[in-house]
What does this fold into?
Amino acid sequence: MSPEYTAIFVRGEQQGMACKIKRAGTLGVQYAYDGVDSLVTDNQAALQRGAYELARSGNKRISDIRT
It folds into this structure.
């Protein structure tokens, strides 16, 4: 089981930027470990990386849907 994180700091390796990304509708107080990536040099890249990391957290359920 993985805790459901509500915020993460994403930053570039040596240059770039650092951004706090949080889940909408939350206080953003349950922090994941920092996300570090050499490709984070723009707000959009930081937002995408943060959304990816936050989506990976928490419990997941796999469901089969037959139509």
Q: What stands out?
A: The chain has a mean pLDDT of 88.
